Structures are given as C-alpha cells and as structure tokens.
UniProtKB/TrEMBL annotation:
The lineage of its organism: Bacteria, Bacillati, Bacillota, Bacilli, Lactobacillales. This is ABC-type quaternary amine transporter. Belongs to the ABC transporter superfamily. Keywords: ATP-binding, Nucleotide-binding, Transport. SMART domains: AAA. It comes from Marinilactibacillus psychrotolerans. Pfam families: ABC_tran (PF00005). Its EC number is 7.6.2.9.
Amino acid sequence: MIKFEKVYKRYDDKAVVSDFTLNIKEGEFFVLIGPSGSGKTTTLKMINQLINLSEGYIRIQEKPISDFDLQELRWNIGYVLQQIALFPNMTVEENILIVPEMKKWSEEDMENRVIELLESVNMDPDKYRHRHISELSGGEQQRIGVIRALAADPDIILMDEPFSALDPITRNNLQKDVLKLQQKFKKTVVFVTHDMQEAISLGDRICLMNNGKIEQVGTANEILKNPANDFVRKFLQTGLPHYQEEKIVQHLIDGNYYSTTEIPANATISVADSVNDLIILLSKNEVVHVENSEDSSQIVITKNHLLDFLAYEATSSKEAEA
Ligand code: ADP
Ligand code: MG
C-alpha cells in the first residue's frame, strides 16, 4: 500500500532518514517509534510530500508519490498532529467539513457525514456540531482532529504523536476510539509515537527507528520476544518501565501465568519483584526461575507467559474503562 524503497532525506550532506525500505500493508495500523530526532516526523511528512525526499521512492498503490497531483494526494491522506490544528473560531461542523467542502460534496452527504463521525466518537451531534472549537476540552478537540482527518474518506491517515499532550485517561480513551474507528472505516494508519506502551496497544506492526534508520520491524510480540540488537533491547527497557508499575511477579503466579517444569533457567526473580524487572530479564532470557520458599517445586515464567499476561492486562484495563 505504502512502499518505501531505499529512501533518503538529507539536509545539506547530513542524512536524517537513510536507506529506508518498508512496505506498509493496506488496512494496517502501522506504528513508527523511536527517540526524539530519530526521523519519525520526517518519514511521515515524506508520505504526503510535506517534505520532499532526496533519494529513492515512496509508492502508494505502486504509483510513485511524485506522480500524484499534490492537492489530490493531500486530500486523500488524512493528517493529525499533536498540536491541535483546528480553526478555533469555526464550529465543529465547519472544521470537519473543510476537505469535503473543497471536494464539493453535496449538502446532504456532508450533513450525514458530520452526524456519522460525531456519533462514532460518542459526541452527540445536536450538542456539538455548532459549538466553537474554543468551547471544547483538549480531549474533545483532539477527537475532532481525528474525525476531521477521516471526513473526506481518505485511504490513509497519518498521525504524528496525536495524543502526547493529553492526560493519561483522555489519551487512553482516544486510543480506544482510534482503534474502533480504524476497524470501522478500514483505513491504513501510520502512527508516530515515542511511547512503547502506546505502540504495543495500537500497532499491528511496529517500526523502531534510530538515527534515521530502521532498527527493527515486526509485531509487538516479535519485537518483545526477539529484540534484533542492543538498541532495541535498551529501548524496550527504558520504554516499558512505566508499564503497570504497581504490578509484581506474584500477579502472574496468581493468574496461572507460569509452569512447573524442569526447564533449566539462568535467571531468577522473586514474587515481590516488579513486572518491569521481569520484562527486562525476559528480554535477555527465554525462561526465568521464580524463587519459591513455600514448596520445593520448580516455578518458571517464559516469554510466552509474560506476553499472555500483558495481553490480558491490556485487554482488561481497556474493558474496565469502557
Ligand atoms: P522525530 O520526529 O523522530 O523527533 P524528525 O524527523 O523531526 O525527528 O527529525 C529528524 C532529524 O532531522 C533531527 O535531527 C532534526 O534536527 C533534523 N531536521 C528536521 N528538519 C530539519 C531541517 N529543516 N533542516 C535540518 N535538519 C532538520
Ligand atoms: Mg517528531
């Protein structure tokens, strides 16, 4: 769907994106993650030609982006930014309809679209459509930012750290909305974040960038299970410690995420240690032995146990909020 072939972006002689080759599939929720300055925004903006690439090709449905009419390309790619780029003096409805207006949709189609989109994020159309943007909370504004990107039914949505300025609860709710919207409208989404937890909960696949280069591409599972190199391992270690900080290894035991086998284990952890310590140990070891004074059986936790536990936690925390 969106294919990068040996793409480079240089400023003067310095490459900020190098040798970037990647194929984002149709309907995929694709996450670009990496430290600040790693080239995420540059990569995203090259897709809708807000930044021109220096070398290589980006193709959308096989066609090089340079062959598209620029206006058409931008209209067919929704774009959501961290700093809310809505027009404060216009109403919610006027903001949502900017691109449909330019595309000369009929009044009836526009009317129906506004209602459909507001309802899809649980905002009562009668209550919200005529409000000014300045009368909305930050979270509501960012919801409008997201549905505005969908308004003219583009095939692709680009999102650049859209939720990083929001408080954690609002952020979590918007993540849920975005997943629902993507399933409902079946878009290809390219989503930039520097937050590993966000990447894991949203991404079908994740691309970890560093210094303009790809360190690893894969599902969250694949990356957590088999970090490609030390950079990925370190990134996971620093990126995940905020994850479920209050959780301890005992929670895995209570939930039956362990086995009692004779698998030899090189690493040992105690039931009172944090899940974060376990994540770090399991990024380097296949199996961790759990210290257990109660009886003599050998309790071990494998990468698969941990992933099942994290997946369960992720789903149940989402459901608790719903
Ligand atoms: P990220 O979004 O991952 O934080 P960016 O894509 O914004 O990273 O930037 C990648 C690198 O490119 C950074 O080192 C940044 O300083 C550099 N850069 C971005 N825009 C320009 C520019 N217009 N001129 C020179 N360097 C730039
Ligand atoms: Mg950026």
